[in-house]
Specification:
It contains 16 helices and seven strands. By secondary structure, it is of the alpha+beta class. The strands form two sheets. It has a five-stranded mixed β-sheet, covered by helices on one side. The chain has a two-stranded antiparallel sheet with strand order 6-7. The termini are far apart.
């Protein structure tokens, strides 16, 4: 009996199953996997079908907006790539409706950022993060410590994240070369969108998932789909490549979580260091726990600490300290004079204590 049918037959709490589907944002994947399986309660099948249709309609709205922005970017001569989203669904699953896409992620060079932002604003999007006008000093600090601004389309409710690099931590970021020799993916009839080449796609997915402790099965499914075609030798070669890029721990964590959930065959790989074993335990905890009812982040303390261990480089850890010392919440809650803006990282700890206890 196929594994999916075995698991479905053993399932007794279908309400919990639907909660897991919602929590991990995998309605399209769940419906696709269970559609041919017999014995699924009819109300569960109908609920999944309804959620999958809603996911499809949401993806179609994203395709429409992406097509509009693509035309404007080409008209302005802006080189860009779509990160994840609809093109990734097409790449991994052969359908643009399978993967849940809540927003659109676009990568441009820092040189083209202002022109790209103008395209978004002219298309009717409003900047939501940061919503405020930034002083030149704080804007520069944001560009040094973060990797995107967020915008909202008021009519469609679609969020667009405009990235000037792939990661907050610049020490492991590939920089502008990620935008060289892009691939084109057919997102829908007549719509072709630029995406990262595979040599940049997999590392980006690995670091993104590890940066969130793999708390969504959606991200695990993505890397599983990419890694499933690799042999043991191929996988070891990927680890060597990740070591050269300074992100081997993040890669090992991603591979290990896929193996632990029996999504990938387990190969004999060199033993992981203690820090990587701890990373794996953090990821397993994050993916298996329930979502907090208050909507707060998963494992905030463990997540914060785990980000220091995604690369063995000392330069990465130093840059991560700078990244985590930068707090938008501090800037909003405790506005300092412009000439004191440099003090925000130094006051991170006392500001955190005040926000946590005094401002309740």
């Amino acid at each position: 009996m196929p594994r999916v049918e075995r698991i479905a037959k053993a399932q007794t709490d279908w309400s919990e199953f639907l909660a897991v589907v919602k929590r991990h944002r995998i309605p399209g994947l769940a419906y696709r996997a269970l559609r041919p399986v017999a014995g699924i309660p009819e109300e569960i099948r109908q609920t999944l079908a309804t959620q999958a249709r809603a996911n499809t309609f949401g993806n179609l709205r994203c395709i429409g907006l992406q097509s509009q922005l693509d035309a404007k970017f080409k008209q302005c001569g802006i080189r860009y790539a779509v990160l994840k989203g609809i093109p990734l669904s097409q790449q991994l699953y052969g359908e643009n409706s399978v993967r849940h896409s809540r927003d659109i992620d676009l990568l441009v060079t820092l040189h083209d950022f202002e022109a790209a932002e103008n395209v978004l604003l002219q298309a009717g999007l409003k900047r939501t993060d940061p919503e405020e006008e930034l002083t030149p000093q704080f804007r520069q600090l944001w560009f040094n410590r973060r990797h995107h601004f967020s915008y909202l389309h008021p009519q469609h409710g679609i969020t667009v994240e405009l990235h000037w690099r792939l990661h907050d931590n610049i020490d492991i970021d590939p920089g502008p070369r990620a935008l060289q020799d892009l691939e084109q993916v057919k997102a829908s009839p007549g719509v072709f969108l630029p995406v990262l080449r595979r040599e940049y796609l997999l590392p980006n997915l690995m670091v993104h998932g590890a940066g969130h402790a793999w708390c969504r099965l959606k991200w695990i499914a993505d890397v599983t789909a990419l890694l499933s075609v690799f042999s043991a030798d191929d996988r070891n070669a990927l680890l060597e490549q990740a070591r050269d890029q300074g992100i081997e721990p993040a890669f090992r964590q991603g591979i290990a979580i896929c193996e632990a959930l029996e999504l990938l065959p387990s190969y004999d790989s060199p033993p992981a260091r203690g820090a990587v074993r701890w990373l794996i335990s953090v990821a397993l905890h994050a993916v298996l726990q329930a979502e907090p009812s208050d909507g707060s982040n998963f494992l905030p303390r463990h997540l914060m600490l785990s980000r220091f261990t995604l690369s063995p480089r000392a330069s990465y850890c130093l840059q991560e300290l700078r990244v985590q010392a930068f707090s938008v919440e501090d800037w909003r809650a405790f506005p300092l004079p412009r000439w004191l803006a440099f003090a925000y990282p130094l006051l991170r700890a006392p500001f955190w204590i005040i926000r946590r206890f005094a401002l309740r």
